[in-house]
Amino acid sequence: MSTDTPRATESLWLDTAEATRHPALDRELEVDVAIVGGGIAGLTTALLLKRAGMRVAVLERRTVAGGATGLTTAKVSALQEVKYSEIAKLHGERGATAYASASLAAVDRVERIASEEGIDCAWERLPAYTYAAHPGQVDAVQREAEAALAAGLPVTTTSETPLPFAVPLAVRLDDQAQFHPVRYVDGLAAAVAGDGSHVFEHSGVAGVHEGSPCRLRTLDGIAMTAREVVVATNYPLLDRGLFFARMEAARSYVVAARVRGPVPEGMLISAGSPTRSLRPHRDGDEQWLLVGGEGHLTGADEAEPERFEQLDRFAREHFDVVDIPYRWSTQDGMPTDKLPYIGPYTPLSSHLCVASGFQKWGMTGATIAAEVLCDRLTGRDNPYADVFDPNRLTVRSAPEVAKAQWWVARHLVGDRLTPAEAGSADEVPAGEARVVRSGLGKVGVYRDDGGAVHAVSLRCTHLGCLLHFNDAERSWDCPCHGSRFDVDGEVLAGPAVHPLARRDLH
Ligand SMILES: Cc1cc2nc3c(=O)[nH]c(=O)nc-3n(C[C@H](O)[C@H](O)[C@H](O)COP(=O)(O)OP(=O)(O)OC[C@H]3O[C@@H](n4cnc5c(N)ncnc54)[C@H](O)[C@@H]3O)c2cc1C
Ligand code: FES
User: Fold this and answer.
1) How far apart are CA 493 and CA 489, in angstroms?
2) How far, in Å, CA of 128 to CA of 138, rounded?
3) How many helical (H) and strand (E) elements, i.e. helices and strands, does the chain have?
4) Ligand 2 test: best mutation among 460, 466, 475, most atoms within 8 Å of CB?
5) Terminus-to-terminus CA distance in the chain, angstroms?
6) Ligand 1 in contact with 484 (CB < 6 A)?
7) Distance 355 CA to ligand 1 centre (A)
8) Least enclosed by CB within 10 Å: which of 8, 53, 264, 392?
9) pLDDT tens digit string along 200-243?
């Protein structure tokens, strides 16, 4: 890798939103509903519950919208790559129809919330497309058009798209939307805080005990009691409910390019690999183009800066790019049976719910989750509750569950046998990381550009898998369930809640 190869920066969204800050929880508190996680799922759920008359508290480990929500491409669309073909295969017509109508309603719901709460989030209605990038993807697009139509979406097929290159076929759904996700979620947080409800930042939750009432404890040891708890931490934080065997974490990369001249008047995504996801963004007189793609499972060796280069190249090849100031990456939970997990945490849970598994489509998915959970906690029927129930039995996904378990077993046992990559910390070049064997086992050693050594245990604090270095973002990532740690061991993404042990190699 060349030393000029660009690595991750902050996201465009986080850099262009006013920083609104919320206090940390510093005293014991009792509320009706405690919500763990301050992304779009947690805060939309909190808002709907507050509107229903409940006292809610959102507990966020870092800052509101600082997780996947601040790093998304923020298309708010019911047409989602080739989702309906996949869902129909696993869940039949009922699953696909429910997902389509819940997703369409979610687009309208986001628009309504933004308008009712007066949130200036650059909301814009645009058509969404899934396009065949080459003739080999035409069948997939055709199948998706048929599955989406059967599910009730008014899609059309066309070979006319707003792309600056010809495509053999695309499926189009009009009247979908895009927005600025951080401004939206900051607006949700402002609407939640006050009148007996709260948003707490820097208030990571270490554990939840389900009971009457439920008890939560923060990493700082402060207790909260709540009648109900919703876990909306992206990957579920608690080691129960078997999510760890039925959901993988997968990353994708995004670049934001300043562009001269026209950008596509639509949101587009290719119907297969290599994924290229595009959307425009306007900021004053400036035209921006976001290009996403290059996905892989978290903790895999492919987390390289070259991922950004591939997206840069695509943008420059097809558009008149001025510069590319932003490059970032994030991840989402990918359920083995392709539907989000929304509802009771385990089959026996009465007061503990989860919202997760949005498969890189959480702007609508999280909004569906908020509706389903609000109905459940206020005693109303929801027509989709059974479809999204986390404890559904999708027998046909069993091979996928076995595959996920095999993957975890390999990283728990097999990887421990791989040799160390450097004999000592002295051999680690500046800006790079190596695995060094020491008396304490394997140590992850990163030498920063200034020459200082950062050494941490390589055992994930979640369930002990061996971490891999992510060279694109300079972090230690877990291949088992997607936890991520910075080079000093602080948690960047869960399900882990505790930092890595630091190692002193001298
Ligand atoms: C590259 C990429 C592009 C995407 N583009 C789109 C798109 O165009 N359209 C779309 O619909 N979806 C998209 N998605 C998916 C979407 O971004 C996610 O589904 C959505 O943001 C998930 O929201 P969330 O609230 O579940 O998670 P998050 O936003 O990650 O929020 C979870 C929060 O929980 C907090 N947390 C974690 N552990 C704890 C703890 N122990 N205590 C307290 N807080 C904790 C985290 O800090 C975090 O802030 C994309 C995903 C990726 C990877
Ligand atoms: S995230 Fe589960 S073992 Fe690392």
Assistant:
1) 11
2) 17
3) 10, 24
4) 460
5) 30
6) no
7) 11
8) 53
9) 999 999 999 999 999 999 999 999 999 999 999 999 988 777 88
